[in-house]
Amino acid sequence: MVAFDEMTLSDGTIRPAYADLAHWLATTPKELLTHRRNEAELLFRRIGITFAVYGDKDGAERLIPFDIIPRILAAKEWASLKRGLEQRVRALNMYIRDVYGKREVVRAGVVPEDLIFNNPAFRPEMAGQSVPHDVYVHIAGIDIVRMDADTFYVLEDNARTPSGVSYMLENREVTMRLFPEVVARHRIAPVENYTDELLATLRSIAPRSASSEPVVVLLTPGMYNSAYYEHSFLADRLGIEIVEGRDLFVRDEIVYMRTTEGPRRVDVIYRRIDDEFLDPLVFRPDSALGVPGLMTAYLAGNVTLTNAVGTGVADDKAVYSYMPEIVRFFLGEEPILHNVPTWRCREPDALAYVVDHLSDLVVKEVSGSGGYGMLIGPHATKEQIAEFRTRLEAHPFNYIAQPTLALSTCPCYVDEGLAPRHVDLRPFVLTGSDKIRIVPGGLTRVALKEGSLVVNSSQGGGTKDTWILDR
Amino acid sequence: MLSRTADNLFWLARYVERAEYLARILDAAYRLSSLPASYGGVTTEWESAVETAGCGPAFSACYDEANERTVMEFLAFSPANPSSIRNCFELARSNARGIRTALTTEMWSTINDAWLQLKNYDPSRMSREEVSRFLEWVKGVSLMFDGSAYRTMLRNDAYAFARIGLFLERADNTARILDVKYHVLLPPSESVGGSLDYFQWTAILRAVSALTAYHWVYKESLKPWLVADLLTLNLQMPRSLASCYENVSHHLDELAQVYGRQGPSQRLARVTQSRLRNLSIEEVFQSGLHDFVTDFITDNNNLSAAIAEQYLI
């Protein structure tokens, strides 16, 4: 299976968006690239752009490898992606509102009922409740993969607490420092206004009872969390307090933070902790990360949580497979972005097919993430396949399967020199009470191991800068 | 600002200041211990260094004997010593990381760099020369941190908390040196005498980086009561108790002004500040240097607790 390369077509032609870059790569000595790569690593290390790997004792903080060769998308390609992303997120929001509200989607037979109620991310506490401005997914990180010049698929809708946006921003900064001339020649749409857009989004969704200058904070599990760098980076750029659970308390259904000047009321919480840990009185009683009483304040409409509680109900791989129907049902439009063809193992015919074709398919747990709990058929041993078949037949509802996709490749600068590696793209979609905002770009993740399709940072994937050309 | 942020800033500054102080103590101990025996007889400088650092009991729990190797290991590197230089840097870095948004880039990278470089120092294989380079480096980190805070931080409450932490820690350090060495600083009639004292005094002054300052201020040969005066009451000397309290008081007043409210910590600081302003060194010696210093250390701790109560919890 030969993958589509985003720079060079199989006949050797360079695609137009890459013309300048290809020329520059061809005329730049290897030593310079190596030098720049080392410089980049030093920059990331010095700034402290790290992530923690759970269970890793020595390297408690690691760098995500950064590939210095940017990935380029033409303005036209982005324009259609952008329309598709907006459409998708509008539908996601309507779906979640419906799940916790009238459930028309069930009555109309679009999505099976048990997918909602048996979903571990379903929060019964949210049923019949409304959230400020009816927005649930304020920040979505939609993973997109590319098959060929014209085909983009959505791989996942990350509707809980998507991460990675700090890398999108830092990658651009580092690239501009390393290759200022190349950057200048390309007329790249800027992404640096992301944090302004995020702040505008967060302010727009403050409860109606909040003052005209709503107090927005970012809630982090703390510095041992794998994405802590991102949390502090965002709080810094947004100019808001980064708080931990112990910095907040609830009195009379109102959330306050402890400051040197006494308690201060909080209106919007951009929370980067999962639902289960938000409030020990409602969810996990052993959670030390959350704030006792937070849910009562939330349900009383006195504070906005982003993303809303329970959005994970739209964010598992079984629901994913219904997204095209969900888009049609709520918007009455044809989906612009397509799903990867998906077999739902819950359906007997699909299961039978999947079991027979395990060595060709990728099988995923419906609620898994981070590249864990999956089988990549073509790369698996006989034993692994046999073992997975047992698990699959025991709990077919837990799995979906997809064809092994020939994810597109981009040139990367690896130890051997320039070589194609598989990539995906995670653009970030912001939904406020006023409008949807998307900065042109996203986080390109790259599977730096030759032939590998796994781009997750927890599995050794890297990232690269993503350029949307302004022409 | 968040109470936790203020608390982290306060302690971050204290840890960095403490690391420098430990480096200075070790430096002074090295000098004294390398003096020929004829200048001081049997030296107890290593034990004294442990005492001055304020960790006698913790040390005895780990080692039988205080010597160059054990003391260096304990004060500089030991994970078992909560305030070893390594632990100070580690805690400072962890505090800094917890509040990166409240630090300037320069402050963060000083601490982060120090923490990264610390891994390059292996205590088990250090020559004398490397030890002294290491101690220089520690002092350099502290200077750079201090300087970057001074030059890059906004003059707001965050700055005030960092400075209050620094000056409280510095006052505590100076007081501890005085407390351990008070016997060599007794007035001449009660002096134990001998050349050992002379080198002890210079070691004290070196430990607080004040040897040159002494000569500028007093234009006299080293006299114990003048050393004590310099370190307790002299406002020109940035490590003196009096000078530290001018600063602590000043920054606490700033906070009170910004927040529009005075509290117990402002009052406590002012009491100590005015006492230090109005005393003379003769009066200190009359009532006893040791008692004076012990009281000061207690007051200083009480102020730290009052600040925590008023702002940091």
Automatic annotation (TrEMBL), chain A:
Span of domain Circularly permuted ATP-grasp type: 70-447
Top-level taxonomy: Bacteria, Pseudomonadati, Pseudomonadota, Alphaproteobacteria, Hyphomicrobiales
Listed name of the protein: Circularly permuted ATP-grasp superfamily protein
Annotated signal peptide: none
Organism: Labrys monachus
Organism domain of life: Bacteria
SUPFAM superfamilies xref list: Glutathione synthetase ATP-binding domain-like (SSF56059)
Pfam families tied to this protein: CP_ATPgrasp_2
UniProt cross-references to PANTHER family, sorted A to Z: BLR5612 PROTEIN, SLL1039 PROTEIN
From TrEMBL, chain B:
InterPro entries: ATP-dep_Glu-Cys_Ligase-2, DUF403
Pfam families in the record: Alpha-E
All copies of domain DUF403, residue ranges: 1-312
Protein name: Alpha-E superfamily protein
